[in-house]
Amino acid sequence: MSRYSVPPLRKFAYLGEFAPAIQGLADMARPERWSYVQTPAPRKNIILENYVYHTFNRLRAQQEASPEGNYIYTSEKNVCFNTGLFTLNFEPIFALFDKNDVKCAAQWKLKGFYKESSIELSQISPLPERASYFDSISDLMFDTRLETRINIDHILEDERNRQRIPEQYRDMSNLPMLFRAALEYAKIRVKENYKAAVPQYYRSRIQFLLPISLGDPQKVDLSLAVGAREGVYTGHTCLTLDMAYNNARLIAKPESDWLIGS
Hints:
By secondary structure, this protein is α+β, with helices and mostly antiparallel strands. It folds into two domains: 8-121, no CATH class; 137-260, no CATH class. 31% of the residues lie in helices and 24% in strands. It has nine helices and ten strands. The protein has helices at 8-12, 18-28, 46-65, 152-157, 159-162, 167-170, 175-192, 241-249, 257-260, and strands at 13-14, 72-74, 78-86, 92-99, 108-115, 147-150, 198-202, 205-212, 222-229, 232-239. The longest helix has 20 residues, at 46-65. It is elongated, with a radius of gyration of 20 Å.
């Protein structure tokens, strides 16, 4: 999804006052960080909002790939999907839609987010499944045996990538050396603790976010996204820590210390 494109969920359904609905979902779900902390964001709970959009996209893709599956429940009156989130007491939370009576192109409108035991979901059986992103847990493990090839020219010269590098390093003459050293240090961190390589789902593939420390090794400055192709990890994009957290949370709550503390 490009930065300026309309999320498919907004074309599928009329969402009304979405910010209060998203806040209600944040209040219902187990506590997490749902807003950016390092960079200004257009809205509070932007990470949660992106998560809901992305979850719908993934469930719809799974439903289209396996029409016999139960990924998005659809009847004449309702549409329902599993948000993948849980209440404090681990009840699954679902998004529910009614027929749209508002004059707009969308056939459905958001009724709200409800936990599994809610009376609003009593007529839906079975309730739809959570989205899935991998076939084996091994898909989420960074293979330290593979070679890593980074398009460092693109990372350091492409303007979008450059703007994600902390300003104090951006124009340093030895930045290429710092970046290569940071990459080697990141690989050592992953060997010491596999959780240091954080999975993200991008263009139907699992990628990994690696911590990049350009100065103080105890401080992560940005993240490098790498993906395996023909037995080699390649990468040409760096992300701010807010962006990395947002992308990682689309599939699971991050557990890596360098990203949790961002």
